[in-house]
Amino acid sequence: MNFIIYNWNCYVNESQKMVLSVGADNGIVLTTLGKAPADTQKWMLEPNFVANASVAAGGFTLRNVAANQAIYQPVKPGQQLSLGDDPTPYGQAEYCWTVFSAGFDTNTGLETWAIQSYSRGAVMDAYGGKCDADTPVYFWDWNNIGNQNQKWVIERVD
Questions:
Q1: Domain count of the chain?
Q2: Cα–Cα distance between 28 and 81 in angstroms, integer?
Q3: Residue 104 is part of which domain span?
Q4: I need a labelling partner for 21 at 20 to 30 A (CA). Which of 71, 81, 139, 143 fits?
Q5: How far apart are CA 133 and CA 127, in angstroms?
Q6: CATH classification at residue 132
C-alpha cells in the first residue's frame, strides 16, 4: 500500500499540493504533485517494532517507493532529513516514526498529522514554512501549538 504525504501549510495557505519527496543527494524535500504522483513522491508505511530495556513500542518506517530506502532521523533537530543507507531498518529506532493527530479541519474534512521520531522527539517540518519546490524537510522540535508546516495529510494512492 502506497501513500502520498501533503504538507498542510502549503495545502491550506498556498493552495498548492506540495508533497514529501526525495530530492538531490537523497535529501527529503517538498515537490509539487502533478496529475499522478511520481514514485519519488510515494511512500510505504511499514510497521516498525522497536524494543529496548525500558519500553517496547512501535511506529512506522517511511520507505520511498522509487529509492526503496527509508527516512533516517538525524541525531539532533535542525538538520534536513534524508534517506538512510540501511536496506532493512526494521527494529531500528532511528528509522521509526510515530504519527499522532495534529487536528481536524472542518472546512476540508481532513485530519492532519504530526510525524514524530520514535526515539528523538522531533518532528518533520517544512523548513521556514515555505511552499516552494525543493523546500527541504527538516527534523525540528514540535511546536506545541502545531505550526502548519509541521502538519501533514496522509492519503492512500494505490
A1: 1
A2: 5
A3: 3-156
A4: 143
A5: 12
A6: 2.80.10.50
Mean pLDDT, rounded, for 41-45: 96
- The rounded mean pLDDT for the chain is 90
DSSP codes of every residue in 81-126: -EE-S-S--TT-GGG-EEEEEEEEETTTTEEEEEEEETTT--EEEE
Helix (H) or strand (E) holding 12: helix 8-13
User: Residue 153 contacts by C-beta under 8 Å, 6 or more apart in sequence?
Assistant: 5, 6, 8, 11, 110, 111, 112, 113
Q: b vs e for 30-58, b when ≥16 Cβ sit within 10 Å of the residue's Cβ?
A: bbebeeebeebbbbebeebebeeeeeeee
Radius of gyration of the chain (CA): 14
The x, y and z cell numbers of residue 122, run together, are 522531533
pLDDT in tens, 108-153: 899 999 999 988 789 999 999 999 999 999 999 988 666 899 999 9
113 contacts: CB under 8 Å, gap ≥ 6? 99, 100, 101, 102, 151, 152, 153, 154
The 10 Å Cβ neighbour count of residue 24 is 7
Q: Give the pTM.
A: 0.91
